[in-house]
Amino acid sequence: MSLASLLPVFALMTSLLAAVIIFTLPERSFRLRTLVNLGAAVIKLVLVGVMIWGIVQGRAYEVAFTMVPGVRFVLRADALSMLFAGLSALLWLLTTIYAVGYLEGSPNRSRFFGFFSLSVASTMGIALAGNLFTFFLFYEMLTLSTYPLVVHRGTPKALRAGRSYIIYTLCGGAVLLLAIAWLHGLVGDLSFRPGGYFAEVEDALRGPLSLIFVLLVAGLGVKAALVPLHGWLPQAMVAPAPVSALLHAVAVVKAGAFGIVRVVLEIYGLDAASDLGLLAGLAGVAAFTIIYGSARALYQVDLKRLLAFSTVSQVSYIILGLCLFGPVGVAGGLVHLVHQGIMKITLFFCAGNYAETLGVHRIDELDGAGERMPATSVAFTLGAFGMIGVPPLAGFTTKWIMGTGALAVGMDWVVVVLVVSSLLNAAYFLPILHRIWFGERQAAWPQERRWGRLETSAWLLWPALITAVLLILAGLLANLPVSPLSWVELIVAREVAL
Amino acid sequence: MFESASFVLFAVTLPFASLLLALRSGLQRAYCYSLPVLPLPALMIALLSDPGWLLSLPGLLHGGLWGMDDLRRAFLLLTAMLWLAAGVFALGYMKGYLKADNLRRFCVFWALTLAGNLGLTIAEDIASFYGFFALMTFAAYGLVVHEGTDEANRAGRVYLVMAVGGEMAILAGLLMAAQLAGSDLLADLPATIAGAEQRGLIMLLLLAGFGVKAGLPLLHFWLPLAHPVAPTPASAVLSGAMIKAGLLGWLVTLPFGEVSLPGWGDLLVIVGAVGSLGGAVLGLRQQQPKTVLAYSSISQMGFITLMVGAALASADVVVTLFAVMALFALHHGLAKGSLFLATAMTLPRSRIGQWLMWLLVALPGLSLAGLPFTSGAVAKLAMKEVLKPDHFAFAAAPYLPALMSAGAVATMLLVWRFLWLQRAVGKIGRNPVAMWVGWGLSLAGSLILFWYLPWHGAVPEKTWPTAITGEAWSLIWPILMATLMAAVAPRSVRQR
Fold this sequence. Notes:
Chain B: One of its GO terms (cellular component) is plasma membrane. Chain B: This is NADH-ubiquinone oxidoreductase. Chain A is mostly helical. Chain A has helices at 7-24, 30-56, 79-103, 109-128, 132-150, 156-187, 203-223, 232-235, 241-250, 252-268, 270-275, 278-297, 303-322, 327-358, 369-372, 374-388, 394-408, 413-438, 458-476, 484-496, and strands at residues 61-68, 71-77. In chain A, 73% of the residues lie in helices and 3% in strands. The two termini of chain A are 31 Å apart. Chain B has one domain (5-495). The longest helix of chain B is centred in the middle third of the chain and has 32 residues, at 150-181. Chains A and B meet through α17 and α18 of A and α6 and α7 of B.
């Protein structure tokens, strides 16, 4: 086994090690903790970069061993896993910077950053998992390591949200385990592979396989916040802003969506899944979730809660894209995995900035924020327009590709869903933008803090600005070979187009 | 040199680059002074480069392609010229009329709207066209609500609701057409739409989507609210240049010249007639000069809609009609821009000065009505030449000349109404130099520049001065008739 093939293990270990070190550090050693945090994040980003480069060259990285007979532990870097790993490595670095600025000065930082690193390690494991069993291990580890982050503040509200979160996700995990075990009993240990396993299904297996699919999607759908399994997500927004950013953009909801991607593309296979009539049902659920999430967002008064419902809606774009059973639709869905991450993390960073700098949590307190915090507000504006799907931002690329993919296979109704969702997005984001830029400030800010010359702490400002630039570039330069879209097209070419 | 890739990129990115001036509040004055500079490179491209150049930007969006053909040249000329005049005007206007603390915001939205409006004019691929169009739509909101009054906010809300609806209709239409065409270029859409199974739906979506900008009847509600509440220089570009973006959207996407669609022709002629006459009737009832001008824009766009209908109805006159529409758009844009700018000008103290001033204010209006030797006369005659009923076979064609005559009378009536109201609010005082220069530029653009502009080869060949002299009576009688009506009507109303 060469050193290079161990790269996935190293990528995983960087954040695990960081977690262990940080747990042992005393509370006050700010510099060392930050150094370990950022160092691990940078090293991981480099490792992922090396793996991506290798995969472009056609190399593959795999580590596997048998745990108990019949059950193997597989870590593998392929094009699809790098989509998720790359996203989380990049955004982890930015979120860590942000979290340092956000939380330093508050209690229990070692605990926080320890679990923070653990949850990123879990995310990396989910990305690199080579079979359902390994996937499940990290999926549950993610649940356990994010719970302390959600309840970090320790307020009754946070504890309530944490309880709801843990109940939802553990039940989801149980259902998922049941489905995986059943599938294992039926067909044995299945590594993820392009095209899946069930291109030709015996009639006897059709029933059980369909049922297992429903269970798998239900188990994964809890984290992906598919309606009606989304209840925990809006509550979990009581967590600190960097946690929300991580939950919504990188780790939790994406883990669910990514799992569904793996199941549909690499266990069942697109053709089998649509043959069994499973995709049509999933498309319906996803479409309903998209509209429902947006419609609920309309009625929110709390900014972060609104963003949470927006996540419910946007993550289902990924799933809807899968259900358009064509390479174009799949590309649209997969690229949204990245695009939604960048856009939503920008919005949460900005919401956190408003809260930390001005004490603003409610939408109706935002009047005149643009004048006080122009840079944050520009980033927020870009994120909002990206969500609406205005070109040349990332959200437009997704919408355009999904739209053409849907029309290509005659699913015209998807265009209606996209249009209605965009209208709803406009209906809840544009009034906020009006307040920010044109609202007149009557009273003082609820709780204002000053940071010298900048509008807010540089730790908080730069991550938001960087992701804002990324969300422009992802759309504006979508045709360049380094864009997320080009990577997704490579995935689709290698794995989906049969 | 002006069609070189680097110069075109410079022209398009200059308004974006100007945003850097917004970073420091100390640079605010510099930003204000840069506004007139922003459209200059684009104006040079329009005036000095030969149509037909293309610029391919493979990395941009889904593959960018920018270029300028004869049609786009006319639109680019109008857009750049009007933004230039309004930008100069804005320099003086900002000093006198706008609150100083919001100037930076005004400059930012000005630059973004300008960037969108110029960019969409030369975009030849779908994604960048739609992108620039959306940028213009959303950035213009900042201009509409700038004053921050309840009235402005209300107008802004109506504008935004209808504009977003329009954007979505455009998106759906473009998606359907682009998917069928399997292409990302605008040039491939007309032929695809012509042969599409869902031709009706796609055309309806695009007509309605762009129709919101163009002020099509029933899609126009935002227009008389939003155009007048914006700061005056913004009103001028909204009503002169941005309204034409809707028209350009139609011209570059709908299946002109591919098939003859008499049904659509009839429909659009009716819609155009309703717009041109209905807009005038509603405009006559208004109390604010700027609102009258906004309705006049709806009315004039109605005329252009007549031509759009005629062009859809008969594929073989499309080339000529496109040239005439471009001419008409150029004429109306500059004249209307000048009229809007005039609403903020104060009058000189002396009697003679006042008379001269009124004459200059009225001239672009008379030009709209087709006064001989103005741009309006040329546009009207060219339109008349093409819209002869024997060129067409669709049902509404025989009514076109009558419609045009009625429209000319209505146009002149609106001009009188505008002058009447403007006289009531006209103040005596001094204007900042920049406002004189800006207004003068738009006036010169409307009255003089027109004669020197590079015209499309397909405009009916004529020696215009001779043609105008020959047709003088047909041009003048609607003006006289409207003047007579304007003189008599108020009295008869008062007597009752």
